[in-house]
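[step 3/7] fold_predict: job queued, chain A
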Amino acid sequence: MRCDESPGQCQNCRAAGWNCEGYDLGRLPKGRTRSETVSVKAQPRPALAMTSDEQRSFSYFQHHSIVNLTALWVSPLWQQHVLQMCHADQAVFHAVNMLSAAHQASELRNMRALEGLSQSHRVCQFSLQQSVHAISLLNQRLSSNDPEVRQIVLLCCLLFVLSDVFLGRYESARGHLRYGLRIIKEMERTEIVSRVEPSLVAAFRRFDLQTDIYLTGRQVFCSNHPPLIHDGPVEPYSTFSPAQPALAELLGSGIAYITTCLSLSDIDFLADYASLSLEHARSSSQLSQATQQFKVFCQQRLPTLNAQGTRSLDLLRLFLMSQALCLKITMSIEPLPDYLLPETLIVLEAHEAFIARYPDLPMFTADHGVITTMYVLATRAPTLNAGLRAVNVLRAWPHYEGLLNSSLVAAVAVRALREQFGASEVEIVMSEEEILFLRQS
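[step 4/7] structure written:
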């Protein structure tokens, strides 16, 4: 009799009375258990021939990765679409296992990228093996006339992007992202993009805004894309389900505008000032409408929300107040005027209180979070102390938001603060990974 490698203590070892240490690739990190769990419908195991490693990896994805990805927001992409496609398509199944292994290894390293990990490491080998299986199956499907093949390829591209980011392969992540965006553009031209899960397309839009932080040597958040301003009035909402995506779309367009402004030199900013001012006024007006409606919504619905809904509402409140401040910052030429310091301190205090209130925040989300605005505050704050507080917010919550790693963004912000205030004034110890990242960027 031998160990059957089941998660935890295996059946064979227990039957024989042996002490089994287990081979559980999917064992959860210590100290990260949650009192709150997200509602994810139980799914049967895919009806596919699986190795024991694949079984454990898929179990980790289903019971841990999905919980992380949906801890802040209800997500049809992860709670429904991805799980359904895992059972329907073998390429998606292997791509999910690839991401699951990379996610677990990164979380066990406190959400540090794995670029320093040897390619001979078991996790890297398993992730690579699963990616080879997925790509092989996708190549076979591409030669067919299957009308669903583009959506399958698009979903796999998304999983490849996230896995590559965990493994520190940022150029590869950009390649998969570009390929997925090209598919979306082709589908838009033929008007068949409406057949694709909307939340999948939205995820690519978010990632498109995040690429430059890792993929160029220029200022962080430089944007090569035109501002994506949300047109039209902000529609009122009476329940949380429509409120979340409506605000997410508005805030996403605001992030696009903010990153575009911050990427401009002073000369280019002044040259485009008229058009930027118009977009700023429009975006500020819509944000003001959304904030007022959000306040009314909170008064009416807050008592009816569960713990996850309350936390999501608190995070949306942070988004609204921090984006209002960042919009003001974008219209200011450095140095930042002192009159914005009181509002900056209020926003920083709110973020610090949020992290202190919710110690079990997820370490992996595919949505917008606090990273973008905290980077802006860290690098454009009126005082060194305010900038360091923003850096500490990023470090206090080690996590990924899509392509963005809070620890690495904090490192870039520290470099900017040292350039502005002097290296001797910014006494922050960096990890080897952060130092390596800064050398390469």
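[step 5/7] annotate
The two ends are 53 Å apart (CA to CA).
The chain has a mean pLDDT of 79.
exit 0
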